[in-house]
Each structure stands twice: as C-alpha cells, then as structure tokens.
Amino acid sequence: MDVAEAGLGRLRDRAASSDAHAAVESAVHERLRPMTARVTGRTGVGKSAVLAVVGSVSLDADGLDVRWHEGRTDSSEGEVLVHVIAGAVSSVDTALLGSRPKDVLDGTVVVLTKADTLDDPAAAAAAASEQLGRTVLPVMGTTAAGLRGVGRAGAPLDMADVRAVASADLRPTDLMTVERFRAADIAVSTRRRDALIECIELRGLALLVDVLRQRPAVSDADAVRMLADATGADALIAAVSTAVSAAAAARDAELHRTVQEISAGHRRVRDAVEAYLASDEAVAAEMRYAALRLGVSIETGSEQVALEQAVLWKRRAAAAGDPDVRRAALALCRGHVRMLRR
C-alpha cells in the first residue's frame, strides 16, 4: 500500500461512523480506480507499436494502475491520450484532438510515427505542431518497440548479426530496400536478416550499421543507445510520464475539492476531512498539482533551500492577480514550509 492509499484509508476509517460515509467512500474510490490511457489514431498509422512502447515502461502514477487500450478515432475518452498520426494531419485528427482541452494538465500526447519513412521528420513534426497547436513528437515506433523487445518479433536485437552486416562489403544500395538487402552478399542467413528487419526495420538497421562503421570500437550497449535516441522513444516516454503524473495530480485535486464540499455539508465528518487535508501526503499532492499547473519543478535540498522557496512562493502568491496562480503559489509555499518541519 502506498502513502496516498494509506492516508485515504485513514480518512475512510474516520468517516465510517458519519452520515457522509457513503459520499467519502465514493470520492476515495474515484481517486483510487485504475487510470484509463488510450492510444488512438487512424487505421495503419502504427498505433500498436506506440502502444507497445508506452506499455513497456513503469510510469509514476502515484500508486495507480495505468491500463492502456488501443482506442478509436471517434472517441477521445481517457485521462491520458496518446494520439498517433502518420504523414499529414487529417480532419479526423483535428476533430479528435479538438475535443480535448488544451491545458498543461490535459493528458494529451501527439505522436508522428513512422518517422523513419520521412525525409525530414523534425520538419514534418514541426509543421503538424503548428497546424494542431500542440507539440507533435516524431517517433520511429516499430524500431523503438523492437529495441525494447516488445515489437512484432518479440525477441531482442541480435547485435552479432548487426556487426556482421556492418563488416560486410555492402554496396550503397544494399540497405535501400528489403529485397536488395536479402539479395546482398553477406555472411548472414536470409532468416536472420529477416529477423533483423522484423525487429528494428531496415531504417533502424541502416542507422546502426552507420554507427558501427563510423565507430567500430563502440560497445553494443552504446550503439543501441544511439539508435534508441534516434527513435524518439525517450521523448515519447517522458511526455507520457508527465501526462500520467498530471492525471494523477488532477485526481488528487478533484478529491480534495470533493471532500471539502462533503465536509461543508456534513459537520460530523469535518474533523476527518481536515485531518486528511493537513496530512503530509495531502499537502504533497497539492504541491505536485500546483507545480504542474504553473509548469515549474519542485526544488528540494537543504533547509535553506526549503526556506528560500517558501519565501519566494509566498511573495509570488501576494503579487498574483490570477486567483488560480495565487492558490498554486500558496500550495507550493505550504509544501516547502512542511519540508522545513520534517
């Protein structure tokens, strides 16, 4: 049981004898239910590969179980949505993404997959970003999934075969098409060549071969790391991790609003709610939500750092004209003050 769940358990226990028990139970259940995350996009854009990549990592969801689904293009349901496009943005993409709020906590990630088939994936992603008004990440989805062992092949990359290909006397055209690669004079069987393509596709293989030829002494791990960087998988996972964290933080904020409303209408549960909202875990949750809302990181370190941050956010709260910004700044101030008391 994680810290948040333990704190919520205490809230439920304290509210058990009150007339608001059912309402508190419902609010806590809503906070702890599994998180729904979807990968959406038109048929053939590469959703399965992207789903395999994001589903292969453990994401920090504050103890929540994140359940991934491959979604339809006519539904944007889900606390976290990874929408996949390939090539030009379509009206379907625009309609689906238009139904999602554009907000720092909206839990939406947009991916331009099959980036290995584009002449300039960065430029294509930038153009799509401009059109959609959202950041679009270029990703070599199938290659990224293959490197993680979760692609179509379902097997790890055989670097011995990659090095054999790199050391062969290849013609410039031998890695241009699958047919030419199969016909090339290489001391690697056709079956094993097909396994390489099945794992990381021809473009991924060509990139690895180029790395090994330029740096023959590079280790297998470093070579794979370079290819992983080229796939854009790390940027995708980082964006999805942020979206999941934001969705979890938004649940905490909604829970706090709900229990405050319950407390206002049910005097007997008031002490239990106030005790929970004053707990370390609730203050930390408010702090996380505030930091995400303001787009800042939470500074940690010595007591001096905590003191400086508390003073800084108190001043920013006093100067803020926007009430939402003021509340967020005060939450950060409270959080740093709590750090000082530990």
List keywords for this structure.
elongated; alpha/beta; 342 residues
Briefly characterize the structure.
With 342 residues, the protein is an alpha/beta fold. The protein has helices spanning 3-15, 21-32, 47-54, 91-98, 121-132, 141-147, 159-167, 178-183, 190-214, 220-231, 233-265, 270-277, 280-294, 303-319, 323-341, and strands at residues 35-41, 66-70, 80-85, 108-112, 136-138. It contains 15 helices and five strands.
Overall description:
The model has no long low-confidence stretch (mean pLDDT 89). Strands 2-1-3-4-5 form a five-stranded parallel β-sheet. Helix 1 packs antiparallel against helix 12, helix 2 runs antiparallel to helix 11 and helix 13 crosses helix 15. It is built from 15 helices and five strands. The relative contact order is 0.13. It is of the alpha/beta class and 342 residues long. Strand 1, helix 3 and strand 2 form a beta-alpha-beta unit.
Order of helices and strands: HHEHEEHEHEHHHHHHHHHH
Whole-number average pLDDT? Answer: 89
Share of helical residues? 55-70%
Uncertain parts: none
Question: Using only CA atoms, what is the Rg?
Answer: 25 Å
What would you call the structural class? alpha/beta
Spatial sequence of strands, sheet with the most strands: 2-1-3-4-5
Count the DSSP helices. 15
Distance between the termini: 22 Å
Q: What percent strand?
A: 5-15%
How many beta-strand runs? 5
The major beta sheet can be summarized as: 5 strands, parallel
Q: Label the overall shape.
A: elongated
